[in-house]
């Protein structure tokens, strides 16, 4: 009986700890920016002559309906919009809004078209930032980026953006290195939902040099709901039922993505709690593993942008350092000769959202292979 009482108490403490961690984690709002493509003077892709369809209208309808679903069913998610009516925010303003609000996710919603305004192509596509791997992806990038040239002072605003330059796109991809895996994860959820929930043809996850993906510093995708140049698909996307199904598919994908992010963060926090508890059980210190002459840092990001190594630029992480290598700036958290402490710093970074963080070893200011360092100092 006494044993059962003790076991019950232990289970209660475990559940209480887990619940406390989850509740602490979910107090922070997960911010999603929904971007209805085009708008105002920029109608986007027109439909066939049978309708007065404009891409901007379908995109706005789906975006607003998606926001309502999120607000109703995902209380830990805060929705922001780049537009809620028929106006045109510039591509730059869309990215600036998402970055200034420190969004956790950016989703741009569009409709597709075949060159020439007609054709048999149909189905959804979801894009992440990358090099154009074929002519069709390049055409999408050209079409979605073309509105740049309708903007005032576009030469100055977009002077650093050249989607036709592989070198330029590679630099942007490196800047997004910390977010690209998450972008692909979300894109896969979206296309799967279009197939399963929507019963639509998915043309898959693709890559292209799209401005709104290149300059939003968070996981970002651009969704093409379908082809307005295909009469049947145009009918579907114009219908109330079609919009509802596509909206529900997007909602399901976002819900899965947000849940996976919270689960990963919770695991990281629990891992850190375990380390802290171990520290307490050892009289306040985890057993140290000092390696003389070696400095360990945790790489959290790599970017073509030169950021001030301050906590506000790195989700509150302190002790940030920056190293310039070629055209890339690498950012590190921590500075210690204690390898075990470096491992706790990795968990700290992951808990802040830097899921791909890893330990790097330095000797006399130069990077050295971590494996060799640990092997040499295995005792």
Summary?
By secondary structure, the chain is α/β, with parallel strands linked by helices. The protein has helices at residues 2-26, 55-73, 91-100, 135-145, 154-157, 166-175, 177-196, 211-214, 231-238, 240-281, 339-351, 370-376, and strands at residues 30-36, 77-81, 105-112, 124-129, 202-208, 220-227, 295-303, 320-325, 328-336, 358-363, 366-368. Mean pLDDT is 80; it is low at 1-27 and 278-284.
Overview of the structural elements:
By secondary structure, the chain is an alpha/beta fold. Helices cover 46% and strands 20% of the residues. The protein has 12 helices and 11 strands. The strands form 2 sheets. Strands 2-1-3-6-4-5 form a 6-stranded mixed β-sheet, sandwiched between helices. It has a 5-stranded antiparallel β-sheet with strand order 8-9-7-10-11. Helix 1 (2-26) crosses helix 10, helix 2 crosses helix 10 and helix 10 packs antiparallel against helix 11. It is elongated and about 75 Å long. Mean pLDDT is 80; it is low at 1-27 and 278-284.
- Regions with little confidence, pLDDT below 50 for 5+ residues: 1-27, 278-284
Radius of gyration: 24 Å
- Distance between the amino and carboxyl termini: 46 Å
Element-by-element helix/strand order:
HEHEHEEHHHHEHEHHEEEHEEH
Please state how the strands of the largest beta sheet are arranged side by side: 2-1-3-6-4-5
Shape: elongated
Return the structural class.
alpha/beta
Overall pLDDT metric: 80
Largest sheet entry:
6 strands, mixed
Beta-strand percentage range: 15-25%
DSSP E strands, number: 11
Fraction in helix:
40-55%
**Count of helical stretches:** 12
Oligomer: single chain
């Amino acid at each position: 009986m006494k044993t059962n009482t003790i076991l019950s108490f232990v289970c209660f403490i475990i559940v209480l700890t887990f619940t406390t961690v989850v509740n602490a984690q979910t107090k922070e709002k997960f911010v999603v920016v929904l971007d209805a493509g085009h708008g105002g003077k920029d109608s986007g892709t027109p439909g066939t002559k049978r309708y007065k369809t404009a891409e901007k209208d379908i995109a706005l309808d789906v975006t607003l309906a998606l926001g309502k679903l999120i607000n109703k069913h995902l209380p830990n998610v805060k929705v922001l919009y780049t537009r809620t009516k028929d106006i045109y925010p510039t591509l730059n303003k869309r990215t600036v809004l998402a970055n200034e609000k420190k969004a956790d996710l950016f989703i741009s919603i569009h409709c597709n078209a075949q060159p020439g305004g007609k054709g048999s192509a149909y189905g959804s596509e979801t894009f992440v930032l990358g090099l154009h791997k074929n002519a069709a992806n390049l055409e999408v990038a050209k079409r979605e980026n073309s509105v740049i040239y309708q903007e005032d002072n576009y030469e100055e605003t977009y002077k650093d953006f050249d989607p036709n330059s592989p070198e330029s796109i590679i630099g942007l991809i490196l800047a997004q290195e910390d977010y690209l895996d998450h972008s692909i994860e979300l894109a896969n959820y979206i296309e799967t939902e279009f197939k399963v929930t929507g019963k639509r043809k998915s043309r898959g996850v693709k890559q292209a040099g799209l401005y709104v993906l290149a300059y939003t510093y968070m996981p970002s995708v651009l969704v093409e709901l379908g082809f307005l140049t295909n009469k049947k698909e145009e009918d579907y996307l114009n219908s109330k039922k079609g919009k509802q199904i596509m909206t529900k598919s997007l909602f399901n994908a976002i819900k899965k993505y947000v849940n996976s992010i919270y689960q990963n963060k919770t695991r990281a926090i629990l891992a850190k709690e375990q380390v802290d508890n171990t520290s307490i059980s050892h009289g306040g210190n985890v057993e140290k593993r000092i390696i003389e002459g070696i400095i360990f840092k945790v790489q959290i990001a790599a970017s073509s942008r030169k950021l001030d190594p301050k906590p506000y630029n790195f989700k509150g992480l302190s002790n940030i350092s920056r190293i310039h290598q070629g055209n890339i700036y690498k950012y590190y958290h921590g500075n210690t000769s204690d390898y075990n402490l470096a491992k706790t710093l990795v968990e700290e970074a992951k808990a802040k959202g830097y899921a791909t963080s890893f330990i790097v070893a330095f000797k006399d200011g130069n990077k050295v292979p971590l494996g060799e360092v640990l092997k040499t100092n295995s005792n």
